[in-house]
Design a protein that fits this description.
Largest sheet: 6 strands, antiparallel, barrel
Radius of gyration: 49 Å
Strand content: 25-35%
Number of strands: 12
Distance between the termini: 169 Å
CATH architecture of the largest domain: Beta Barrel
CATH class of the largest domain: Mainly Beta
């Protein structure tokens, strides 16, 4: 029974196939239908692959672009850093030139010559207790003990320990500092004493009836012979009179910023020519002249 049904189905299928084949030969509809169907099937099969391919290509393009952009960004950042460094160097050179210009604007002092130096260290000594600086000039450059040290704003201190190519200079604020000063206006004299870093300076031994006012500039008196007279040193900040003391209680502040010093001027006394040397020179000239025959 089953074999009979299968044979009938095969015969019917063969009949339908031959009929469709004959119809397709005459009309070609099945070929067109198969073409359309095949195209659609190919389209829907290939579309995901094409989508993945397009996305992959776009991703790779973006990745390559981003890599190139990152390299360009790194290069620009490096160039920007170099330019910033160059600008900083140029600013430092301009600042240095300005400081040197201020140093050169100081008028020369009679019987004194100047020599520039650079500060290379601050507050040297045990526990940094000494209020001092180290400069890059020493005995080789003619720096000796008690050589005055100043800036365009005023006196900084004096050399206390010269070395061969460096020297230690004690600042005004050091407790061992002593400078003879006088008022720039009223000419009252006193001894300017340091009280330590960050503390005001004290003016000792200024007479009770001495005229001095707050804000007056104190200059070197030249009495001790260490400093030339007339150099600005400090500014008076307070003046107090006492009934139990013979001297005024005067405080002052340095004119120089002790914490931010970079360049200084060293003052060297010019030794005058003695009369004996001049006399020897004249006698030498006379002896030379005496050896020249008359009329020559």
């Amino acid at each position: 029974m089953k074999l009979k049904r299968a044979a009938i189905a095969v015969i019917i299928g063969l009949f339908v196939y031959l009929s469709l084949y004959s119809w397709n030969l005459r009309s070609g509809q099945l070929d067109r239908l198969a073409g359309y169907t095949g195209l659609e099937i190919v389209k829907w099969v290939l579309w995901p692959c094409e989508y993945v391919y397009d996305r992959s290509v776009a991703f790779m393009d973006k990745y390559v672009y981003l890599v190139g952009l990152k390299q360009l960004n790194d290069q620009l950042s490096s160039q920007n850093g170099l330019m910033r460094l160059e600008i900083m160097k140029l600013r430092e050179k301009a600042s240095e030139a300005e400081r040197y210009q201020h140093l050169l604007e100081i008028k020369p002092l009679p019987d004194w010559k100047t020599n520039g130096a650079r500060v290379i260290a601050h507050r040297m000594g045990p526990s940094a207790a000494l209020d001092s600086v180290i400069i890059n000039k020493g005995a080789v450059s003619g720096v000796g003990a008690d050589t005055p040290v100043m800036t365009p704003l005023g006196v900084l201190g004096r050399v206390v320990e010269p070395g061969l190519s460096a020297a230690k200079a004690m600042l005004l604020t050091d407790r061992n500092s002593r400078i003879s000063v006088r008022g720039q206006i009223h000419r009252s004299t006193g001894l300017l004493v340091g009280d330590g870093a960050g503390e005001p300076l004290s003016v000792k031994y200024m007479k009770l009836n001495a005229p001095v006012t707050e804000g007056e500039i104190l200059v070197t008196s030249g009495l001790a012979g260490l400093f030339p007279p007339g150099l600005p040193v400090a500014k008076v900040t307070s003046v107090e009179r006492s009934d139990i003391s013979l001297f005024l209680s005067v405080e002052a502040v340095p004119l120089v910023d002790m914490e931010n010093i970079e360049d200084v001027l060293l003052l060297h006394r010019v030794m005058p020519v003695t009369n004996s040397t001049a006399g020897n020179g004249n006698s030498t000239v006379q002896s030379v002249n005496s050896t020249i025959p008359e009329g020559s």
